[in-house]
Design goal:
single chain; mainly beta; Neuraminidase; five-stranded antiparallel beta sheet; 41% strand
């Protein structure tokens, strides 16, 4: 996910922790007007929700009205928080097939938009087959007899991607308002993108993909949406490219897709992902030339809406636009953090296309992910402490 400092972070993120986009305007490329802010945000804190997890990387609430939270653990297990407490039994355990550690493991989870009816969910994990590290996107079913138990035998593999190095595997999965599944893959790893994957449209590495899990395309066990931007002469799954390691991204209710793309050695960035967009890596890191280090050709590149340097943190963790009611002054702001720095920021659109970044909270947490409940309230996943916390007024 991140070069030296980054390596350590993800080597700390997923070594000691794992992992560690420009708002991603995916399903809809709308440009909503900025949200007026009623005043300064009051002092905030993180309130404990549940603990006892092992290297948690993601928190997802099922869209079936049960208010359950699902905690993704790097080793290959998923746990449930129900009525404020973790259930003793795993929801899913595929640890025997997952290669974990460093930036590898069970990295992402998304529930089908019709999950309440079809019981389908999707995961992103790494495995080793014949000495080759691979990323796997797979569909599973929940047991018909027990809603708190997945059917581990129901796996349907949708996509397998060979990884040239152990790091920068991405991991995020999210369904857009268009019903399609968006997938984040890093540039393949090492440092500096030595294979040039970020700028190549012939590989899925360094990209955000968009597929239809409800259909097929030729021999592919998934469909290619007819309006994907690169249907001819390129990998048709690609939605956006030029990304280094889009660890976490999310859709806002407006349809815009916000993404935190983990940087190399100097800068972390927030992007808004647009159809066919080129976000610059490895020509640029953030809003700065990378290869070459000066005088780079920025033609056609989409710059981040915000960035910060490594004096503030070394591994961005993308979050969510706040749509809850407990912190009214935060309404419409994008909230994100950093794995190594422990800071949580708000990103406020003060005028169309103009963004202001301010610190909301400085913590000692190893933030590996954010979560959002159906009411729009936000949560933090602490990788090191194995805990889930809620962002609340002090």
């Amino acid at each position: 996910m991140y070069a030296s400092c980054k390596k350590w972070m993800l080597a700390v993120l997923l070594c000691a922790a794992v992992m560690a986009l420009q708002a991603c305007g995916g399903a809809g490329n709308s440009s909503p007007q900025p949200n007026p802010q009623p005043g300064p945000v009051p002092p905030l804190t993180l309130t404990s929700v549940a603990s006892g997890f092992t290297s948690p990387l993601a928190l997802v609430q099922s869209n079936d009205g049960t208010n359950r939270f699902f905690v993704v653990e790097q080793r290959g297990t998923i746990r449930i928080i129900q009525n404020g407490a973790p259930l003793a039994a795993n929801f899913l355990d595929i640890s025997s097939k997952v290669s974990s550690g460093g930036e590898k493991g069970l990295l992402g989870l998304a529930f089908h938009p019709q999950f309440a009816q079809n019981r389908k969910f999707y995961i992103n994990y790494t495995r080793v087959q014949n000495s080759q590290l691979q990323s796997v996107i797979a569909e599973y079913l929940v047991s018909a007899a027990d809603p708190n138990q997945a059917d581990a035998t129901s796996e349907r593999i949708l996509l397998v991607l060979n990884q040239p190095f152990d790091n920068h595997n991405g991991g995020q999965l999210a369904f857009g308002p268009d019903g399609f599944l968006y997938i984040g893959f890093g540039d393949g790893g090492s440092g500096g993108d030595p294979m040039g994957n970020g700028q190549s449209l012939s590989t899925l590495l360094g990209k955000i993909l968009r597929i239809n899990v409800n259909g097929t395309s030729g021999s592919k066990p998934y469909g290619i949406p007819a309006d994907n931007p690169f249907l001819n002469g390129a990998a048709p799954e690609i939605w956006a490219y030029g990304l280094r390691n889009p660890w976490r991204f999310s859709f806002d209710s407006t349809g815009r897709l916000f993404c935190g793309d983990v940087g190399q050695g100097q800068f972390e960035e927030v992007d808004i992902i647009q159809k066919g967009g080129n976000y610059g890596w490895n020509v640029m890191e953030g809003a700065h030339c990378f290869n070459p280090s000066s005088g780079c050709n920025q033609s056609g590149l989409i710059l981040p809406i915000a960035e910060y340097d490594h004096s503030e943190g070394t591994a961005i963790i993308g979050g969510f636009v706040y749509r809850g009611t407990a912190i009214t002054q935060l309404q419409g702001s994008y909230v994100f953090g950093d794995f190594t720095g422990g800071k949580i920021w708000r990103l406020q659109e003060t005028s169309s296309g103009s963004w202001t970044r301010t610190v909301l909270l400085t913590t000692t947490r190893t933030i590996s992910s954010f979560g959002q409940d159906q009411a729009g309230e936000l949560y933090v996943v602490d990788y090191g402490a194995g805990a889930v916390l809620k962002l609340t007024p002090q």
